[in-house]
What does this fold into?
Amino acid sequence: MADGQRPPDRTLEALLKEDRRFDPPGDFRRLAHVTDPAVHAQAEEDFLGFWASFATELDWIREWDRVLEWEPPHARWFVGGRINICANCLDRHVRGPRRNKVAIVWEGEPGERRTLTYWDLFQDVCRFASVLKSLGVRKGDRVAMYMPLIPELAIAMLACARIGAVHNVVFGGFSAESLRDRISDSGAKLLVTADGGYRRGSIIPLKRIADEAVEACPSIQSVVLVKRADLPVDMRRGRDHWWHHLMEQATPECEAEAMDAEDMLFLLYTSGTTGKPKGIVHTTAGYLVGVYATTKWVFDLRDEDVYWCTADIGWVTGHSYVVYGPLANGATVVMYEGAPDWPRRDRFWEIAERTGTTVFYTAPTAIRAFMKWGTEHPARHDLSRLRLLGTVGEPINPEAWVWYYKHIGGERCPVVDTWWQTETGQIMITPLPGITSLRPGSASRPFPGIRAEIFDDEGRAVKVGGGYLVLSRPWPAMLRNIYGDPERYVKQYWSRFSGVYFTGDGARVDEEGNFWLLGRVDDVLNVAGHRIGTMEVESALVDHPAVAEAAVVGIEHEIKGTAIAAFVTLKEKSAQPGDEAGPPSAAGQALAEQLKEHVTKKIGALARPEVIILTADLPKTRSGKIMRRLLRDIASGKALGDTTTLADPAVIETLKQKYEEAG
Ligand code: WTA
It folds into this structure.
């Protein structure tokens, strides 16, 4: 199980040898929200009461009748309750002492800075909610967003939540086609975008890409455009509007809609094991309770904290832990638009120092890059206000964990390695920083109230050892469906083992109950913390006129954890670059580059293959199935596994040779 997609030193052997331990520092233990290890047992006794106690800390328009209705695999949380998430993130705070507290400290990549108090944010959100209404957006309508990491993105999301529209944020690194597919699938009525966004010194022309996408999206009636980069844009009359023009005229009077607990809050597309991304459906009350509770306990948030999660809002981490979780907790949130190494490799540490960041949450792929860049960059800055560090998105190798602990946290800050997914909505397996004895490389234990288990192939629970990670009890922020495809929801998540949620991850649990995540066990890759389906990349490749067949596997990568390797056969076999033996020809190299470009154009730069191997044949079983396992072995330079089912064993030798030559 769990073969293939592991970052450096995350082999079972390496993890088994990992016995370092880091206990919470005395001060931390004393002052934390959670100081009593009995919270786990208490939540087990009454998990519904546990979640309900967080719910009572929030503002309800109507209280719920029942905490949970569970008809597997369909859950309804806080049934009968009425609540508005936006009101819990803003109105609740502006009525009290947080009115003038800073909600967002934002910095653009070129260096501009903006600070919005809770009052400022509240006013802007109400204005934009009025704008949405004036453009005909009603409760239940879908609104797509394709934006850089600027405050307007959070404002637009909260404005949707305020009036009950469903937002669908599409990461700004996706291509026009990916954007088009997501808009079409969701049937969005309105798109919010910007002229451009900054990334590593250049400008991504978002509006131009969006224009190409929207051309094929008849559902879109209006496009609202933030002026961010002063790029020239084509404005389509009647359809396109400038954000700042609309906002000037809009009223800040806009009541928050009384949403049903189970009304849809947002859709977020994520990769699965087929070529078509899934629209993950999240609803209102359960999601709010889940992200509110986990933000408070996992990040141990207090009013004086300055909290920075570096994720892009286009991913679920940005939804739950840049926008909703921290704002529901009334936190001061740092946002930075651009790249960590622009213009210099200490950009993050400069921002952390200036803003006085106390809680910092990032991805292992970023930490591995920091490691590679060297300790001199953080060392130039005063990071002594940091008190807690977090990671998310992929397994963190113990070396990166210890580096982070030492060189960013000054050996003083607990590191919370948090495991969760787009589908879970909230953090699921995680240390609680005031009580957990940390083991580098382990995400520790399920959050109180959560039940995670390891199953073997037959669906028997493994008490100690490895297998498939499943979640065997509903949780408040869980996905409710796949948009427009309820059958796939059941099949994808609830059918591998009946009645329990299958995560698609492999993991091991040790004698103390610590979980060690081992990576995906399905056809999903985790490239630099971004989920990409092998099928999506393969479809993009075969879309190229020269390509007959493609098979994509993950290979180890020093920084990205996993990178993409594609084995490609070409049409018209005679005289094609893939045929000749020996090192790749100039024509072959040029074609490989073209194919990488093609994938970038079809999906986005995040899916660009690291290596392309042109080959005359792919290893197949006698029934014609591509043997990916063998390709993975070739790509990782491992001894080949069982080859007895191979139709033509000679293919493998040629391939191995080609792979080595392609370097
Ligand atoms: C992986 C991101 C190990 C895992 C929040 C999961 C992790 C997928 C961790 C979800 C972690 C996330 N340790 N693996 N701490 N966190 N993963 O939907 O394979 O973008 O299934 O959600 O990332 O990715 P997604």
Remarks:
- The first helix runs from residue 12 to 17.
